[in-house]
Amino acid sequence: MPATPATPRRGRALRTANLLASILVLTLLSACNPASGEMSEWDAPRVIEVAMLDANGDFRFSDERIEARRGDVIRFVQEGDMPHNVQFVRNSSPDGVELGDAWTGPYLNKKGEVYELHIDERFADGEYEFVCTPHVGFEMRGTLVVSGGNVEAAEPGSSRTAHERPEVIGEKGLQELEYTVASDGAKEFHLTAERIRWETREGSLADAMAYNRMIPGPLIRVTEGDRVRITVENRLDEPHTTHWHGLFVPNDMDGVPGISQDPIEPGDSFVYEFVADPAGTRLYHSHFNAMSQEAAGLYGMFVIEERDPPASRQVDREEQWILGDGPLGYVINGKEFPLTEPIEMKLGERIKLRMANLGGMYHPMHMHGGFFTVVAKDGFALEVPQKMNTLSLAPGETYDVILDPQFGGTWIWHCHVLSHATGPRDADGNETAAGMIGVVVVDDGETVLADMSNHTHH
Ligand SMILES: [Cu+2]
């Protein structure tokens, strides 16, 4: 029986092939010579199928108590109509286990999609509660019981698999990217796409992909009319391209593989060059395996400043929020609440918040405690600014919002698809706040503000 290596995501198919081959060998062994095998048939790895169901509003896993041994594979099969996933509840898992990318499985959006969970050495003996993240409110949950098997359990707390997984842990996203000015006046930037591990929620490191080791990727800021030259280096183990979202670029700089350029192969680089145009809040993101690469963190913001902004657009400072969903969870700037970083301001201040949605779902973002004013859509100034307290962002949209709060306090600003802002139930059986929740702390000198310091540790 070959050891089951813990490989990055891409090795899954191979692992499955190995496993199927092992099953076949074991089957042949027991068929040819049932008495000679060291391993009894009882130990043969199994494939356990579990359906994800949602017919008639009855959200459930077909098997709510799954008994498995290390070496087994659980095939979660999407048989419903709504997106489902498998997320293990960390604080209900055996002490010290580190499931890595198995903590949260991908969203299965279409009927027939499959998530294969390998019960490998990371799974120590014990019980693991799991939920479907979007439908935890509907009690779509179950328990996995692991005991024994033909793969040895890692020492709890050890990281026996760490050498096979990306070592780099990402840093705070959207840090402004430095550039050099070339002899021809072009501003030259460098982006590197690679795999990292990323803390989306406290204590849980997800396997992710990032530009320059941060999620979202660095903030690129230039002025309209600047000549821009960006080298994109692909250190992933799969091809990549970068698309400049909302910018007017020559067709061969648009980053669409097979249409406007060849994919950038692993180890290669590609130089994108264009004139920054038009001014406004713009984005960049992967366009190769985009559904998975973008969801894994390969996106960032591209701000093109106006050359002569009218005085009416002056603000005290700016902030940026990029929404995401998928394997990293329901995130703002790559973090789920309570790791989302609060916006702190004084009553009377004016902040421009550049918001964008690079997830795959709609997120109606509702702010408590007054209103904000939308002044631009997709980077273009609105003829008539619009006051709102709920702004729905479709995938790919950007909005510029002026925050000039009317009341002091600690105000939350959350996605009103409540399953995007709710975590697993706590020990008392109550829903927890998690996911796509931002916080705006407005100091008016009087109102007692909530202490957010124990919520964030950055
Ligand atoms: Cu949402």
End-to-end span in angstroms?
Answer: 45 Å
The radius of gyration is 24 Å
Total separate domains: 3
Mean pLDDT: 87
Biggest pleated-sheet summary: 6 strands, mixed
User: What is bound: which ligands?
Assistant: copper (II) ion
Low-confidence stretches: 1-41, 159-164
Structural class: mainly beta
- CATH class label of the largest domain: Mainly Beta
Second-tier CATH architecture of the largest domain: Sandwich
Strand content is 35-45%
- The global form is globular
Helix count? 2
Strand order across the largest sheet = 21-20-23-28-25-26
Describe the protein in words.
- The protein has 458 residues and is mainly beta.
- It has three domains: 9-164, Cupredoxins -  blue copper proteins (Immunoglobulin-like), CATH 2.60.40; 167-309, Cupredoxins -  blue copper proteins (Immunoglobulin-like), CATH 2.60.40.420; 314-458, Immunoglobulin-like (Sandwich), CATH 2.60.40.420.
- Helices cover 6% and strands 39% of the residues.
- The chain is built from two helices and 32 strands.
- The protein has helices at residues 12-32, 290-295; strands at residues 47-53, 60-61, 65-70, 73-78, 87-88, 114-118, 126-131, 141-149, 171-172, 180-181, 187-201, 204-211, 214-215, 220-223, 227-234, 242-245, 269-275, 280-286, 299-305, 317-324, 331-332, 343-346, 351-357, 363-367, 372-377, 380-388, 390-393, 398-403, 409-415, 422-423, 432-433, 437-443.
- Strands 21-20-23-28-25-26 form a six-stranded mixed sheet, with no helix packed on it. Strands 10, 11, 12, 15 and 17 form a five-stranded mixed sheet that branches.
- A hairpin with a 2-residue loop joins strand 25 and strand 26 (380-388).
- The longest helix has 21 residues, at 12-32.
- The radius of gyration is 24 Å and the shape is globular.
- It starts with 11 loop residues before the first helix and ends in a 15-residue tail after the last strand.
- The chain binds copper (II) ion (CU).
- Copper (II) ion (CU) binds next to loops.
- Copper (II) ion binds at residues 330, 361, 363, 415, 417, 420, 436.
